[in-house]
């Protein structure tokens, strides 16, 4: 048998030829034979012609997208590992692909630190399958998919909460720790900070992920209807109740019930909620039949519940029942380091949704975003960028395109900001470069705070020690020289 015939085979399916060629070169350097296709239809034909050992598949492609292509591949050969690639990664996409049998999920732009270990795992998978162990129920394909599916879900959680701020890293770590348990979670923070994103991450990373995630906005339901919404009602329970209706608790059975803005519930409803939370039993309105439910409750509020309890507007016993795992999501103005990452993600996502070339922020416009206090937080940032992507002609978003009130506020609060800015922003030629500059500045500041202790800093910012070493090497930071100068 020739050496070429023994080389594992990779099939890359992506509508961007440059990505296909780059990946093919990487696989070749790693001892693989690699081919590529630039559409889902071409990929299926290539797969049928020569069954590969591994498939790298882009999600967003014209015509047959990656989801449909994945389903077709799994119908042809369920045992071939398929790695999903996406530049618009969300936790929902990761989970959907995982449920369809994806082996792993990688976010674009692809990182060699994630790609190469994935190739190694695929080689091990191929070896197990070739030796016959890959078809054994106890140690084969099923166990491999279960293991890597959990990895994909965790990566999806990391993707959903973007940024490098210490608070953001802390939230990700909390989600990763809490999600697999069944503990109840109370999320606090201002409007627009991403409380529901945290709740969905907790649900998706839990054993309840295949069941329902039911969200209830307690502030949006009229007082006279909230009991019917939560507990359901029997036919004829009140005027207008023409049919039996299941409540949110019943719909969330086996899954997660997200009670948003729980601080806006009346004391009367709070009392009923507390009893149900304690007993996991309730009756529909107008019905004497007792129903039992199994729900995990995740609650959220933008109010200071300690002040609400002191004022007699929120029950202390309900607070302690919900506050098993507290998660505080800080406002965007307290984690400005995340703005480049969030803006980068939203612009990429909007480019796909609007089916238009991606727009770029000029350095001056980016400086305004960095200095603005964002009273509406992440939601305000996303909405602003969406509006600008729609109304701005051309590829660049400049200061003149931003709301005048925003620019005036920055000029008044931060004199000279548009001229001086921060060194990282002024030196950056693009948003991607700005993000890299801010990351470097952030890491070096944390190192200085920790007396240039690598282990302590890596733990503080939530990354592996080896990963931090690689970043410093990439940036050309000589730790021995820095320590001597400091």
Topology, element by element:
Blueprint: H1 3-6, E1 9-13, H2 17-29, E2 33-37, H3 40-49, E3 54-58, H4 66-76, E4 82-86, H5 91-99, E5 104-107, H6 112-130, H7 141-160, H8 166-178, E6 185-188, H9 195-204, E7 213-217, H10 223-231, E8 232-233, E9 245-246, H11 248-251, E10 256-260, H12 267-279, E11 281-283, E12 290-292, E13 296-301, H13 305-310, H14 316-322, E14 325-328, H15 339-354, E15 360-361, H16 363-371, H17 377-391, E16 396-397, H18 404-413, H19 423-427, H20 431-449, H21 454-461, H22 465-474, H23 479-485
Parallel strand pairs: 1-2, 1-3, 3-4, 4-5, 6-13, 6-14, 7-10, 10-13, 15-16
Antiparallel strand pairs: 8-9, 11-12
Helix pairs in contact: 3-4, 5-7, 7-9, 15-17, 15-20, 20-21, 21-22
Provide an overview of this structure.
- This protein is of the alpha/beta class.
- It folds into 3 domains: 3-160, Response regulator (Rossmann fold, 3-Layer(aba) Sandwich); 166-330, P-loop containing nucleotide triphosphate hydrolases (Rossmann fold, 3-Layer(aba) Sandwich); 336-449, Helicase, Ruva Protein, domain 3, CATH 1.10.8.
- Helices cover 51% and strands 13% of the residues.
- The chain has helices spanning 3-6, 17-29, 40-49, 66-76, 91-99, 112-130, 141-160, 166-178, 195-204, 223-231, 248-251, 267-279, 305-310, 316-322, 339-354, 363-371, 377-391, 404-413, 423-427, 431-449, 454-461, 465-474, 479-485, and strands at 9-13, 33-37, 54-58, 82-86, 104-107, 185-188, 213-217, 232-233, 245-246, 256-260, 281-283, 290-292, 296-301, 325-328, 360-361, 396-397.
- The strands form 5 sheets. The protein has a 5-stranded parallel beta sheet with strand order 2-1-3-4-5, sandwiched between helices. A 5-stranded parallel beta sheet has the order 7-10-13-6-14.
- The longest helix is centred in the N-terminal third of the chain and has 20 residues, at 141-160.
- It starts with a helix and ends with a helix.
- Residues 133-159 and 419-429 have low confidence and may be disordered.
